[in-house]
């Protein structure tokens, strides 16, 4: 590592008393910073020979909210004032990572309970769909398409008492399943809501990035973490695969609802035939 990189890293570490485990992480960064700025916390932990929570604690000791913030602070030490090609390389690396994430999901499809879960959700009325903060986007997309083939989908993207009311109301109306989209960073309010949902008797299906997420059924797909903010190509693909499984589970209803939707959009001129 160049002296400029080393000096910048030293300034981040200065004044912080590190545990032996944290010193191993610091040592790895000092020797491999050019590579480390593109690693996820799990990958860095593996390379440094520590646990992933140790990487998170290391970042917090240095004053960051978590590892993504530390990695973002480290990148200018290597890339700062970059020639044009470096920014392009960063974007290319992020896209390459998403391609690997999608490939990983594709290779795991036979082991995922998509068919069984799709059948359960297709039969569940009403069907609440939860997603807060960054997860609201994917939850909204999932709910939008699911409404085309399912008679009663209830989207929950606002927290506070409105979220509790929505969970309670859907349960009273007969809801048995809750679809929860939970992507990093994980809001405390979501975890509290899922705990409350469990008390109400919900069965929870989670679309998330961690296989060990506390839910009855977990559909996990990695997020892209090479850029300032995460990208969600693989979780989106998995969510759309679940919509497809729901459609396949009730083919007659799916066909009838899609035909009705097409008639409605034709009558109301909802969509352009083609772009001008």
Automatic annotation (TrEMBL):
<dbReference type="Pfam" id="PF01418">
    <property type="entry name" value="HTH_6"/>
</dbReference>
<dbReference type="InterPro" id="IPR000281">
    <property type="entry name" value="HTH_RpiR"/>
</dbReference>
<protein>
    <submittedName>
        <fullName>MurR/RpiR family transcriptional regulator</fullName>
    </submittedName>
</protein>
<dbReference type="InterPro" id="IPR047640">
    <property type="entry name" value="RpiR-like"/>
</dbReference>
<feature type="domain" description="HTH rpiR-type">
    <location>
        <begin position="5"/>
        <end position="81"/>
    </location>
</feature>
């Amino acid at each position: 590592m160049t002296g400029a990189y080393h000096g910048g890293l030293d300034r981040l570490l200065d004044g912080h008393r590190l545990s032996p485990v944290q010193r191993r992480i610091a040592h790895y960064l000092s020797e491999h910073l050019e590579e480390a700025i593109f690693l996820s916390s799990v990958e860095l932990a593996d390379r440094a020979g520590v646990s992933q929570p140790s990487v998170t604690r290391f970042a917090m000791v240095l004053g960051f909210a978590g590892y993504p913030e530390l990695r973002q602070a480290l990148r200018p030490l290597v890339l700062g004032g970059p020639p044009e090609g470096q920014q392009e390389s960063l974007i290319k690396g992020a896209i390459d990572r998403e391609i690997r994430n999608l490939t990983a999901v594709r290779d795991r499809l036979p082991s995922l309970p998509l068919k069984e879960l799709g059948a359960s959700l297709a039969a569940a009325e009403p069907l609440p769909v939860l997603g807060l903060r960054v997860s609201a986007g994917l939850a909204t997309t999932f709910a939008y398409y699911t409404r085309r083939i399912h008679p009663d989908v209830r989207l929950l993207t606002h927290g506070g008492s409105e979220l509790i009311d929505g969970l309670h109301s859907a349960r009273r109306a007969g809801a048995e399943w809750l679809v929860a989209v939970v992507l990093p960073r994980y809001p405390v309010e979501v975890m509290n809501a899922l705990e409350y949902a469990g008390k109400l008797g919900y069965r929870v299906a989670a679309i998330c990035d961690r296989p060990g997420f506390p839910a009855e059924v977990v559909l996990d797909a990695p997020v892209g973490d090479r850029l300032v903010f995460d990208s969600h190509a693989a979780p989106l693909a998995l969510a759309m695969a679940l919509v497809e499984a729901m459609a396949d589970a009730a083919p007659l209803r799916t066909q009838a609802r899609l035909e009705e939707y097409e008639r409605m959009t034709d009558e109301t001129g909802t969509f352009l035939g083609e772009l001008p």
